[in-house]
Amino acid sequence: MIESDHMMEWHGRQGASPNLADILERVLDKGLIIAGDIKINLLDIELLTIKLRLLVASVDKAKAMGINWWEHDPALSQPRPRQLAAENTRLRKQIRALQTATVEARR
Amino acid sequence: MSTASYTYAVARPFNPTQAAGLVGVDGAAIHLVRHQDLVAVVSPLASADADETALRARLETLAELEVIARAHHRVVAAVAACTPTLPFRLATVHRTDDRVAQLLRREYRRFRETLDRLAGRVEVGVKIYVQHAGASAGAMSVAEKTDGYGSARAGRDYLRNRREQRDRRQHAWRRATTAAEQMDAVLAGLAVDHRQHRTQSAELSAAPGENVFNAAYLVDAGRAEELAARAQRLAAENPHVTLEITGPWPPYSFADSEERT
């Protein structure tokens, strides 16, 4: 039942064990999720990976390159709707003020 | 002293001598919890770590996290090298081996089905990078040119140079992304299944250039070389990108039957 001896060979041939990013990506983000008795709950793990990513990725650089995954990440975008709503209200007020000003200027 | 049971994976039974001397998290020896034709690969976790707070605190430290993650992977990879294996997420911990056995009973059908799907298959990682050469060199030449020019002229030159630099980067990015999409279409055709991962930050991976594409392909173990060779040929046609192939991995990215992200 030995399926493949070469399972371990590739990494070895490349002269090193897999790099940390590749391992973390798999053991933190992939692999089957089982709710164990000791709950390092999944959200915590997820938060941890996000923290890690934010820690290691320069946000400005990422944005400049068009990487914006965190904007679509539910765990990170949760507080956003409220911020967006506030921003919307503020902008609407400004538009109304500008419209009023324009109408009055025409008179 | 009470310990907890850290589970690495569920697998088809295999000859325990193949796992002889295999150690997991904190150097604890591996043992198997069996239910019918399934085994869970387990090691004891010291009581000091057998609660949420303690284990979480360890995982929040990058150095500790690395040690635990590598131990987890070492066990999963060693088992996957000798039998069909379904890798678990890091830090799957039960109070006792009995609780692990209960899990095997409860999820028996699902584990069997997933193992059938993964049996004899491996995961190959493919990443594509784009190089952004000349970014700092461009800035240097502007600095040199400022001698003898009026400051307004130098400012304009600087801004134009920055704009050109940004345009070059965006162009390189788009070109690499297009190349990646074309490669993905071909490789997906060779694979049983495929998943796209988030791109990696250069700081963590210490990789050459900026990662624009990161995917995993599930293939029959015998076809892993073929997929790798194909990826290399496709990348060679495109001088603007750098390719990195990793694996073969145990099928981590395909342990869930559906794409999560």
Please name the defining characteristics of this protein:
heterodimer, A: 107 residues, mainly alpha, disordered N terminus, B: 261 residues, alpha+beta, four-stranded antiparallel β-sheet, 8 helices, 44% helix, globular
In terms of topology, how is this protein built?
The complex is a heterodimer of chains A (107) and B (261).
Chain A: H1 9-13, H2 20-29, H3 42-56, H4 59-64, H5 74-77, H6 80-106
Chain B: E1 4-11, E2 31-35, E3 38-45, H1 52-59, H2 62-80, E4 85-94, H3 97-106, H4 108-118, E5 121-130, H5 135-145, H6 151-190, E6 193-196, H7 202-205, E7 210-220, H8 224-236, E8 241-249
Antiparallel strand pairs in B: 1-3, 1-4, 2-3, 5-7, 5-8, 6-7
Helix pairs in contact in B: 5-6, 6-8
Describe the structure.
The complex is a heterodimer of chains A (107) and B (261). Chain A has six helices and no strands. Chain A is mainly alpha-helical. Chain A has a domain at 8-56. Residues 1-9, 11-15, 56-62 and 73-80 of chain A have low confidence and may be disordered. Chain B folds into two domains: 4-119, no CATH class; 122-134 and 167-254, Ribosomal protein S10 (Alpha-Beta Plaits), CATH 3.30.70. In chain B, the strands form two sheets. A four-stranded antiparallel β-sheet of chain B has the order 2-3-1-4, with helices on both faces. Chain B has a four-stranded antiparallel β-sheet with strand order 6-7-5-8, with helices on one face. In chain B, strand 2 (31-35) and strand 3 (38-45) form a beta hairpin. In chain B, helix 5 runs antiparallel to helix 6 (151-190) and helix 6 packs antiparallel against helix 8 (224-236). At the A-B interface, helix 2 and helix 3 of A face strand 1, helix 1, helix 2, strand 4 and helix 6 of B.
